[in-house]
Design a protein that fits this description.
Elements lengths: L2 E4 L3 H12 L4 E4 L4 H11 L3 E3 L2 H4 L4 E4 L6 H5 L9 E4 L15 H6 L6 E5 L5 H5 L3 E2 L2 E8 L6 H10 L3 E4 L26 E3 L2
Parallel strand pairs: 1-2, 1-4, 2-3, 4-5, 5-6, 8-9
Antiparallel strand pairs: 6-8, 7-8, 8-10
Protein name: NAD(P)-binding domain-containing protein
Keywords: Oxidoreductase
Pfam family, one: F420_oxidored
Length: about 200
C-alpha cells in the first residue's frame, strides 16, 4: 500500500510527521515543484519524499490537505481514480454558497469519480495533529465518515498504524455532519481533542 499527501501547508506537514513518527513511507506534493519541498520533507524524516503532483497521485491512498477550492485541480490530474482511496482532510470555511447545504466532502467526492472517499483527520488543528497521538494511556481520536462504509475499513487500519484511535461516524450527511462546517458555524466535533483509553 502506498500513500501520498497532497498539500504541504500546516495540515499536510502535520500528517507527514505522523507518517515519519512510524517510519511509514509517504510522498508529499503541492502546487510547488518537488525541489521546493524537498528540504522541508527531509527535515520531517527520511520516509517523507517530495514528488511532483502527478507522481504522488500514483499512490493507492491520497490525503487531500489542500484549500477546499483546489480539490478540482487535484481531481483532474490523474487519468483515473479507480481503485484509489481519497482521505479528505480539508475544511471548507466559511462554507462556499455553491455547496447549497451539501456537506463539503459529499460535494468534493463528485470530482473523484471511481475513488473510495473518506472524510477524516480534519477536525484537529495542525499542531495537535502533528503531536504524538499516544497520550495518557490512550490514543488521540480521529473521526472517519463515508457514504461507502467499506471505504473506512482500510483508513481506520491506517489511523491505528499511525497511533490514532479511529471513530467511525457513519455517512457524510449523518454522523459525518459533526465534522463539517455549515455556513459560518463549525461542526460540534471540530477542534475536540479527544482520547480513547486502551481496553
Amino acid at each position: 500500500m502506498s500513500y501520498a499527501i497532497v498539500g504541504f501547508g500546516k495540515v499536510g506537514q502535520a500528517l507527514a510527521q505522523a507518517f515519519a513518527r512510524k517510519n511509514i513511507d509517504v510522498a508529499v506534493a503541492s502546487r510547488r515543484p518537488p525541489e521546493a519541498l524537498a528540504s522541508q520533507a527531509r527535515a520531517i524524516g527520511p520516509t517523507v519524499v517530495a514528488k511532483s503532483l502527478r507522481e504522488a497521485l500514483e499512490a493507492d491512498t491520497v490525503f487531500l490537505a489542500v484549500p477546499f477550492g483546489e480539490h478540482r485541480k487535484v481531481a483532474k490530474t490523474p487519468p483515473s481514480w479507480e481503485g484509489k482511496t481519497v482521505i479528505d482532510a480539508m475544511n471548507a470555511f466559511p462554507v462556499p454558497e455553491e455547496l447549497d447545504g451539501i456537506p463539503s466532502s459529499a460535494f468534493a467526492a463528485n470530482a473523484f469519480t471511481g475513488a473510495k472517499f473518506v472524510k477524516g483527520f480534519n477536525h484537529l488543528v495542525a499542531a495537535t495533529l502533528a503531536a504524538d497521538p499516544t497520550v495518557e494511556g490512550g490514543h488521540r481520536v480521529v473521526f472517519l465518515s463515508s457514504d461507502d462504509e467499506d471505504a473506512t475499513v482500510p483508513v481506520a487500519a491506517l489511523a491505528k498504524r499511525l497511533g490514532f484511535a479511529p471513530v467511525k461516524l457513519g455517512k457524510l450527511n449523518e454522523g459525518g455532519a459533526l465534522v463539517h462546517a455549515r455556513g459560518r458555524i463549525w461542526g460540534p466535533l471540530i477542534f475536540q481533542d479527544l482520547f480513547k483509553k486502551e481496553q
